[in-house]
Amino acid sequence: MNMNMKQNHNRLRLALLLGSFSALGPLTIDMYLPSFPQIAEDFGTKASLVQLSLTACLVGLGLGQLVMGPMSDVHGRRKPLLLSLVVYLIASLACALAPNITLFIVARFIQGFAASSGIVISRAIVRDLYSGHELTKYFALIMLVNNVMPLLAPVAGSGIISFTTWIGVFIVLGAIGLALALIATWQLEETLPREKRISSNFGELLRNFGQLLKDREFTGYALTQGLMIGGIFAYVSGTPFIYQHIYGTSPQVFAFLFGTNGLSLILGSQIVGRLSHKWSEQQFLLLGLLLSGASSVSLLIAVLVEGPLWSLVVPLFFFVCSIGITATASFSLAMENQAHIAGSASALLGLLPFVLGAVAAPLVGIAGEETAVPMGVIIFTASMLGMVAYFGLVRSKQRASGK
Fold first, then answer.
1. What is residue 190's DSSP assignment?
2. With contact defined as beta carbons under 8 Å apart, do 224 and 333 qualify?
3. Is residue 196 part of a domain?
4. pLDDT tens digits, 327-372
């Protein structure tokens, strides 16, 4: 009994640790969202350029995973993570000190690139240690810690700008990066032994990516997850202006509504983790896709008829919940057979959502700040394409192989 309690304690401690590293991405994205109007005013620029800083961050998060994932397969998990956290601290301070919107956007790209290591390496560590249903359950536990950040980050950001400016947000982010670097130095053990690391040969790294992309099931899961999470960035980019400008909410009300959807994300991932012994990951993925489709249709109708605020808030709650379900299930399914190149597989799984999100984020403001239609169209399109990717690649391959 004591041994089991000790194992559970160590399991929870590691989940908190890895969840904290992974949460650096959502923190970097979400904490400054309530500051969008203030940043636009201070730099004397348009909303679309402020949204471009989010795009730059998302591109950095995507490309960074493509670099840091394979690097962790070659050099182990600890060293690349520690190096990137130091870079993150410097980039956060550069954001705070940026004299114009152009340099701010550049600094946001570097900040996102550095934050990517927390996401991709924490996932690779989970695959180093677990497989099968245990992988699903443990990833759901990581997601629980990780998904608290979208709940807290905008609230923290609005709290910070209530007594200082948006600059304070980036100073706080820099302090978080420093704290995580110290924690990683003292608490994180290496999980990838030298004998299991791959060669640093660039050609071999490319062959690993090619091997993953030729796997129809892996590619299908990656595209499904990427499109769905890409759609959520339209919501992340659009709601600061839609809620505050079109519907006249305060930064505090926006933070509350945004944080409520953090709860829905937690709900979705924990449904998978708690019931993974009763339902298969395939069943959960299908459930998430159906929920996404229904909620995105409701949202599209609401924005087309210019419905009241609640008509957007309710379907967005269920759409974000569907992301929690699909992301947890698809990650476990995609990573199951990739133990030998977990870092590279995790990198590709992490790249697509941020690249697609980087495309979606600025498109939300393409019709101006007085309409929510682009956000509704993008989320609906992402949901439909996610279904196409799943049924066109994964299910067709499984039917062909007789699964």
1. P
2. no
3. no
4. 888 888 887 766 667 677 877 887 787 778 778 777 887 766 678 8
Q: In whole angstroms, what is the distance from residue 96 CA to residue 99 CA?
A: 9
How far is Cα 72 from Cα 59, in angstroms, rounded to an integer?
20
The Cα 6–Cα 116 span in angstroms is: 31
How buried is residue 269: exposed, middle or buried, by Cβ count under 10 Å (0-12/13-18/19+)?
A: buried
Give residue 7's pLDDT band: very low, low, confident or very high (50, 70, 90).
Answer: low
- End-to-end Cα spacing for the chain: 40
Q: At what angle do helices 167-187 and 101-129 cross, to 10 degrees?
A: 30
State the residue range of the domain holding 169.
Answer: 2-187+201-395
Query: In the chain, how many domains are there?
Result: 1
Residue 89 sits at the vertex; the CA angle it makes with 88 and 93, to the nearest 5 degrees, is: 110
Short-list 313, 286, 287, 285, CA closest to 375:
313
Beta carbons of 181 and 82 less than 8 angstroms apart: yes
Q: What is the DSSP letter of 403?
A: -
CA–CA gap between residue 285 and residue 210 (Å, rounded): 25
| CATH number, domain with residue 336 | 1.20.1250.20
